[in-house]
Amino acid sequence: MGKRENFTSQRAAILAMAGSAIGLGNIWRFPYIVGQNGGAAFILIYIICGLLISLPIFLCESVLGRSTQSSTFGAVEKVAPDSPLKWMSLITVITPLIILSFYSVVGGWSIDYFVQSLFNGFEGNTADTFATLSSAVWKPLLTFTIFLGITALIVIAGVKSGIERFNNISMPVLFILILVVALYSLTLPGSEAGVEYLLKPDFSKVTPETVADALGQSFFSLSLGVGTILTYSSYMKRDSKLIASSLGTAGFDFLFAMIAGFAIMPAVFAAGIEPGAGPGLIFETLPSIFVQMGAISPILSRIVSVLFFLTIVVAALTSSISMFEVGVAYLVEQKHLSRRASVALIFAGTWMVGALCSLSFGPLSNIRLFGDNIFGFFDSLTANFLMMFGSLFFTYLAGWKMDRSKLLAELGGKRVILFFIKYIAPVGILVIFFTNLFV
Ligand code: PHE
Predict the structure, then answer these.
(1) For the whole model, what pTM was predicted?
(2) Alpha carbon of 202 to those of 21, 42, 93, 361: distances in Å?
C-alpha cells in the first residue's frame, strides 16, 4: 500500500467537506421544510440545533479522523483497541453505501432532467411525466448507472487528483450557478410570496416535531454520523484547524441552502403553485414552471433551467463521491485492496442495491417494507436510525473513549466544547431519536 494521500490545503479540505454537505438535501428538502415549519422561526431553531448538537458531532468526526489518520474502522481500532466497538463501526461503513444506493437513483433522475432541459426544454411535460419516468425500467436504470459510474471514476482518480480537484472546480461553480438562478427567480412578478414563505416567522407552527425535523435536516445536510466527515478529515494535514474548518463547512452549507430556497420558492409562488415535498418539488413542479416562463421568454427560461439542473447534478456528485470514498477507504486500509479493485467492488455492491431502489418505483413497487417501497425503506432506515446511531457512536468515542488531553489538544484547548461533546450532543440525539419514534 502506498503512502496515504492528503488534501493539499485547509481550503481544499473545507471545499471537499462542503461538497459532501451541499447536495440534494439543500436543494429540495431545506426550502420546503423551512416553509412548512414556520419560516424564520424554523431557521432560528435550525441554527441553534446546528450550533449545539451538529457542530460538536462534526468536531468529533473531525478529531477522530484527523488524529488517527485513518478512516472509520481504523480510527475506532486506534481509539479503542481490543474493543468490540470496531465491529460496531462497520455499521458506519455500510450506512453511507446504503445512502449512496438510493441517492444515486435521484442523481440519475437529475441527469435525465438535465438532458431534457438541454434538448427539449420540458415541452409536453405533464403532471405525470415524472411518475412515468421513475416507474420505467431501463431509462432510470441507465441514468442511475451513469451517475454511479461518474462517481466511481472521480473516486478512482484518488483523493488529490480526483476528489480534491473535482470539488475545487465545482464548488465555486455551484455557488455561482445557484446565485444566478436565485437572482432570476427573485425578479419574477409575484416572487415576494416565496420570500415570505421562507422568512416570515410563525412560531405557532413550532412543535416538538419541528425541533426533531430541524435536527434531522441538519444531520443529513452536514453528512453526519456516516463516517464521511471522519474519512475526509483523515486526509487533513496535522496543522489544519478543525474548529475553523467545521465552522466553514457548516457556514457554506447553510448559505447554500438559503440561496437554494431563494432560487426555488419565489419561482414556485410566482407561478401560483403550492410547494410540494421532496423529489416532486424539483422534478414535477419546476419543469412546469420552466414551461410557463418559456411562454414569456423562451431563451431565458431555457438557460435558467439548464443551469438549475446542472447545479443539481453537480451538487449531488460532490456528495456521492464522499459516500463512495468511505467504503473505498475501508477496503484499501483494512483489506489492503488496490484503489481500483475497491472502487469496482463498491460499485458492484451499491449498483445492486440501487437497482432495487430504482425498480421499486416500477416493477417492484408492490414489495413493501414497513409500509414503504424499497427506496423509502432505505431512506427512512438511514435518516431515522442509522445516522442517529452513527452520530451517537462518534460522540461516545471522541467524548468518552479518547484520551482527554489528546482530545483537548485537537480542539485547540477549548474546554467548553468537551461539555458539548460529552453531554449536550448525545442527549440531544437521544431526545430526537425518541421523538421520532413516538411522535
Ligand atoms: N449532505 C448531503 C446532502 O445534503 C447528503 C449526504 C448524506 C452526503 C450523508 C454524505 C453523507 O445532500
Answers:
(1) 0.94
(2) 27, 8, 40, 36
